[in-house]
Amino acid sequence: MKAKKAQLGTVFLIVFIDLIGFGIVIPILPLYAEEFGPSPIVFGLLMASFSAMQFIFAPILGRLSDRVGRRPVLLVSLVGSAVGYLIFGFAGSMVMLFASRIIDGISGGNISTAQAVIADITTPEERAKGMGMIGAAFGLGFILGPAFGGLLVQVAPWLPGVAAAAASMTAFVMVLVFLPETVDPEARATARRHPLNLKSLGDAVSHPMVWPCLVIVFLIIFAFSNFETTFAQFAVHA
User: Distance of CA 28 to CAs 45, 94, 124, 225, 228, Å?
Assistant: First the structure.
């Protein structure tokens, strides 16, 4: 029981620290991009590039974590996020900004993998509580991250990117030192014998208990993304 609580606490801190890094970048990304004079369409594509890559690669990383374990996927994705943040911090063109968001999106499977860790170490009765902890860590990271980003950019324009990378690497060290592998070798071997099946994925998405939840989440994230993309510009130019 104590070991399980320690693992839950570790996952909470990993997600919290990682989301602080993500939140640091969000409020200043539109203002960074504005310096390069993109058209509204190019700006929209920049903001969408992260989520587009995450949409494609999160299921792949999730399946990969079944086959090789949660720890390797978490470690690689956190390093990828750190690289993306560093490119963002020192970006000198729209191409570099696109590269930073694409790299971060490709490696953005850390949250879904952290959720898989929660599913691994909790019983069905405890799972809602465990997933709630992920949501709480997510929310706290988004509260503190943008505030830190706004403060750090006053010191130096590159500092938010470096601070976000440092947050990802802090989470990397926590995974490396404190988080044991939660998928046993037998389960990994079984997953390797069953490649990603798109039909099974389609069946899951079309399940009558699943697709309404997906629609609700889509609408919530759609509204949030519109706000997230335009608020910084509105606040500066209003």
Answer: 16, 14, 40, 14, 10
